[in-house]
């Protein structure tokens, strides 16, 4: 699909003037490069035009984000009022605030999509500029994109705050009794995991869907959450033969993966020594991940063996830990140091990403993590370049911190992965089954399942491919577009407000609900404030204009959202600002159907089935030719030779007819024709001809 068409598909109403004028820039560029030489004046004027478009989009995003922050702050203050007032504290009040937060969440998702489309537009026009002018503006423009970034990381803060407020509403003002940091020092994890790739276009939408069911997990609730807190860095160890890589890829018994991990900034004082073991003998064949904490300034001593497992256990005992935990730490530390000695392990690869974790505090039965900005960086010196480790023999590079996208790192030392990675972790041994909403999510168009995906295997197979006899199976899928046609009734959609309570019926419930629930709002001392909150939220869409109060819901995937208390309006809703048009509007439905029909994905097996049918016809033709040649060569009279010629003609007719059918069906498949694909007359005519012959 051409980029201009893709851009137009994402332009909605009042946002049209705020998008990058991609077609106008392309037209200007084309007119200046055709049949004439590109001059310095052309370059200056084109850059000025591009700067204006860039600044327009950047200012629009910041303005909308500021509006969203204001709405979140208003919701936070309103929820605090609910918590501090017994008369205002009611289910109806929390439900209405929950709906307002959901509306804001949808707007964040829409603004994220807007940002993504415009970033791609600028990248595309820079690419065309360089190709048509033979200059390198794309590289020079990097600094301007850093000064006024068009990335989606800025939305993570809003999502985290919405998640916290949404969780309060879900629990009707009560706080979770569990510990948010539970699991931080846990020594062993036994979980069933599944991994999926998420296209950058769908990252924020997936975050929003998961957040409606699980809160964002914040380990340190004592401080304000910052984007840097989501950074996760891991250094993986292996030897020159890459034995750990081979063992993990082939899933050998007791195969290990050893890494040192830290969270947040490079200056973090704590590091985790982690070991993954496939079919651990001490757990009766179960796979396990175990780890312990160590001070960063003692990591090099641990690697060399100067800081022994016994000393680590003593230090851990001094913190007041129980003896069972101390023994576990000693066992893990001794096992890791044994692997370092026997397998001669060295730092090989760093993996960096920003992680958003979703989990109920204190409950580890279900945990979902979404890793974005996934980056692989070489740590080894197997190619003779020792300056990667500075100072020498340090356990990690000091010139690489957490400043994604690490533009100062040489291209030969870095790989920026094109997708985000979603990982679901279920403690199935405790009887945890995947909830319905999660099953629907992983079966939707938003995710692409990649069984057995491993970050270390991915990075190692890229940097050390010439040494590896075996490669991961998913490498062939990286260059394939994993996006699929949007599933019907799946994902985040703006819809008319309907009652979602399990005990209510869809039809005939609007007026009944309105009559029943209206007194609740009238009698609620906070009802006026809540309705004012809804009006204020709508005003952010179109300042100075009155709009019908709208509410949002999650179609299909959002079945776990709190039940509604009122059908606020029967009128058709119209979005005047952030977001896409109402999903169930008649015009939007027609447009969506047209879009789906154009983007319908064709499975390869469809073409193969057509080819198999064609080959089957040719096999029959070959049989007829065999009969014809036998009659011609072995026939004893003139009649046999005539019949041989007839069968040859019949075989030619059948072959030509089969070729016609093959080409016709191939055309119908490529053009999504709704005509008949079966053959009514062909087999019948063939039978008649054979009987006559």
UniProtKB/TrEMBL annotation:
Gene3D superfamilies: VTC, catalytic tunnel domain. Residues 1-143 form the SPX domain. Keywords: Membrane, Transmembrane, Transmembrane helix, Vacuole. It is found in: Vacuole membrane. GO terms for biological process: polyphosphate biosynthetic process. It comes from the Eukaryota. One of its GO terms (cellular component) is vacuolar membrane. The chain crosses the membrane at residues 614-636, 642-662. It is a multi-pass membrane protein. This is SPX domain-containing protein.
